[in-house]
Amino acid sequence: MKALILDLDDTLYNQEEPFKRAVQAYLPVQDGQMEDLYIAFRLHADEVFEAATAGEMSLEASHIYRMKRSLADFGYIVSDEQALTIQKDYQEYQGQLLLSPEFPEIFAYCRQRQICLGVITNGPHLHQLRKVESLNLTRWIPEEHILISGQLGVTKPAKVIFDLMAEKVQVLPEEMCYVGDSFESDIVGAKRAGWQAIWLNHRRRKEPQSPYRADAVVEQREDLFGKIKKLDAR
Predict the structure, then answer these.
(1) How many Cβ atoms from other residues are within 10 Å of residue 118's Cβ?
(2) Partners of 147 in the β-ladder
(3) Contact, 118 vs 146, CB < 8 A?
(4) What is the pLDDT of residues 75-131, one digit of tens each?
(5) Distances from the Cα of 136 to the Cαs of 2, 37, 131, 221, in angstroms?
(6) d(Cα 222, Cα 41) in Å, to the nearest integer?
(7) 116-121 and 146-148: which strand pairing?
(8) Vertex 94, ends 53 and 78: CA angle to 5°?
(9) CA atoms of 42 and 90, how far apart (whole Å)
(10) What angle do CA 27, 135, 213 make, to 5 degrees?
(11) Helix 31-53 crosses helix 59-73 at what angle (to 10 degrees)?
(12) Which of 67, 76, 122, 209: disulfide with 83, CB 3.0–4.6 Å?
């Protein structure tokens, strides 16, 4: 392995935490429900992501849709205005992110082994850039190795965005490894590009029907470093 490239949302940080803070400020959602609610939120977000990216739906409309639908799944009915208020707080808390504790050790290992580091993330450019800054990722990862779909006009799982990263780090596809939490966006995209891929399935989602398979599956974040070292040792 000569390059380790990472997803951002719910991979480098726990995306449930800012969501939980925003929702519980307005609704009596119990901690025990929160993970399932967040998974529903992500699923409904995926339903409208392509339409919002293509301009067929406004970003605001997509935010209302995903928040209202996920809350309704659990019996919480909110207005468009309430949904946007929760979304606004969610975005605010996303500017106060904490890097998941396993990554400093992973980054130090990669630096020692001279493994290139990078990020590929879907989302609006400035919104994702604010998360990058909040996590202080440029301490370990060069800015030119952080690819944001909103800036490039292409989203995962499109092979082209993975090919672009391989060109930037000047590493052959078979020597690249990608880590991400979304099977459809991260694993499918990386395998299409000929990369190795680790599925960080800490939400324990069911693996979809696909001709592609991850090279490793991690369900506990603390096991990720060991899987990376095993792939590196191949």
Answers:
(1) 21
(2) 120
(3) yes
(4) 999 999 999 999 999 988 987 899 999 999 999 999 999 999 999 999 999 989 999
(5) 23, 28, 8, 20
(6) 25
(7) parallel
(8) 75
(9) 13
(10) 85
(11) 150
(12) 67
Cα–Cα distance, 139 to 121 (Å, whole number): 18
Measure Cα distances from 66 to 87, 178, 189 in Å. 10, 27, 24
What is the maximal distance between C-alpha atoms in the chain? 53
- DSSP symbol at 179: E
For residue 88 the two structure tokens come to: 């606004």
Cis peptide before 142 (omega within 30 of 0): no
Residue 147 phi, psi (nearest 5): -105, 125
Alpha-carbon span 148 to 155, nearest angstrom? 8
User: How far is the first Cα of the chain from the last one, in angstroms, to the nearest whole number?
Assistant: 8
Residue type at position 162? F
What tokens appear for 3 in the block? 């390059």
Q: How many Cβ atoms from other residues are within 10 Å of residue 64's Cβ? A: 21
Spatial distance between the Cα atoms of 113 and 125, rounded to a whole number of angstroms:
31
Residue 211: partners with Cβ closer than 8 Å, 6 or more residues away = none
DSSP class of residue 184 equals: I
Listed in sequence order, the residues at least 6 apart from 94 whose beta carbon sits closer than 8 Å to its beta carbon are 18, 127, 130, 131, 134
Among 163, 165, 164, 157, residue whose Cα is nearest residue 184: 157
Task: Show the low-confidence residues of the chain (pLDDT under 50).
Answer: none
Instruction: Specify the length of the chain in residues.
Output: 234
Provide the CA 34 distance to its chain's centre, in angstroms.
18
CA distance 46 to 161: 19
